[in-house]
Amino acid sequence: MYFIVNCSCSSLGSSSESAIGKLFGCEVENSSLCRCGKETVRSTLTLLFTMHYPEQNSQEKTIKEYDFAEILKKSICLEQSTQAAAEEAEGASLYDLVVTVPHILDARTGGNLVAHIKVGETYHQRKEGVTHQQWYLFNDFLIEPIDKTEAAQFDVSWKVPAILYYAKRNYHTKYDLRIKNPIDASVLLTEASLARKQRKSHATFIPLMVSEMPQAGDLVGLDAEFVTLNQEEAELRSDGTKSTIKPSQMSVARITCVRGQGPNEGVPFIDDYISTQEQVVDYLTQYSGIKPGDLDAKISSKHLTTLKSTYLKLRFLIDTGVRFVGHGLQKDFRVINLLVCHFSYFSQICCLVLKDQVIDTVYLFHLPRKRMISLRFLAWYFLDLNIQGETHDSIEDARTALQLYRKYLELSRGGGNDEVRKVLKGLYEKGRQLDWKVPDSDTGDGQGSLKTAAVFPSVMGL
């Protein structure tokens, strides 16, 4: 219950911009007092007051006289009682409309859904350095700002409301909305393989010990291998160019993470083969190292697990704040379905990797407007390693990316950006001379493998 008292003063309405308001306006204070004791005062400008005369009893023979000044005072300072709810009344909550989802009708296509979303101050302050709220229209890939009235206006002949989403006002100031990691370190501990024939002698990784649990800023070498579920569908145009009708569908088949520091640097702590129920049309063995049967729980000797299990491990590492080192990580993350972004916005509903957490050697050793260089060629040129001879191996690739990052840091410390640029120019010159092909080893004695084994301890050795 509100008790509202309107009290006016005789000063001119200085808050008005119009000449009429300045000449005849009167500032009015609306004082609202709730039963809960909450008082709210608002200042407004009015040009008109309704005169409230005392009620007369028709049965009375004499008419009571009133002073006009008294009537005027009571009309201006009017006390009313009305039913309402206080903003902070006990047990009461105010909700604001933040999302509307209308169905746009179309007789030809059946229509589609669009979303109007009110983006709050936090995003704009972080993205643009300003503090304001703005409604946006989300229509497939189109995102554009709109007026707030458009978000709440509907016409059932073509724009039918489907969802109206309200949020409690000022909930971010009343509740702790910091993202809490629901995944604990136990996901990185030993887990049983789905493969029936896997033995410890076939182990390709050693799980982290409690003392090795990653901290924010720690390096983790990462590599992933993929298989093809559906081949690309394309047609040849009359002018000889190819038009893709349906792109090929890739699926992650193996994810490897290796230690990036410590006495066991280079030793993998995750080497998961991802079981899939879908039919694989191409294992891409030459590029992935995945062979038929590796993903089959009945006959595989690999550490076979589910995609969800591996996702939990990656999410724990991401939320911990580790830095991933790899070659071509942008493509790997895209197929794995992890988003690399500048801000962890909406990270409660999708798995995001902050850009500062990604160290991609394909960009470290790259000059603007020049071709990207393969991991194999970089390993030969900088590390004198011969990798990816017959097939790719994700452990070898993750280790090599870590070594290349160490090499990049060494070059940067030695002479700064000028030295790095000079070395990269020499790299591109050598690549053009060799047509970007790694020359055959003169000795053929497996020096590359021996050098790798000397740098990183083997799993069996540990």
TrEMBL record:
A Gene Ontology molecular function term for this protein is: poly(A)-specific ribonuclease activity
| Pfam families, sorted | RNase_T (PF00929), UCH_1 (PF13423)
Q: Give the UniProt entry's GO cellular component terms.
A: P-body; PAN complex
Question: Which reaction does this chain catalyze?
Answer: Exonucleolytic cleavage of poly(A) to 5'-AMP
Q: Where is the USP domain?
A: 1-169
Name of the protein in question: USP domain-containing protein
Question: For this chain's UniProt record, which GO biological process terms are given?
Answer: mRNA processing; nuclear-transcribed mRNA poly(A) tail shortening
The record's annotation in InterPro entries points to:
PAN2-PAN3_catalytic_subunit (IPR050785), PAN2_UCH_dom (IPR028881), Papain-like_cys_pep_sf (IPR038765), Ribonucl_H (IPR013520), RNaseH-like_sf (IPR012337), RNaseH_sf (IPR036397), USP (IPR028889)
- Keyword match Metal-binding: yes
**Any idea which UniProt keywords this protein has?**
Cytoplasm, Exonuclease, Hydrolase, Metal-binding, mRNA processing, Nuclease, Nucleus
What PROSITE patterns does the annotation carry?
Answer: USP_3
Which species does the entry assign this protein to?
Anabas testudineus (Climbing perch)
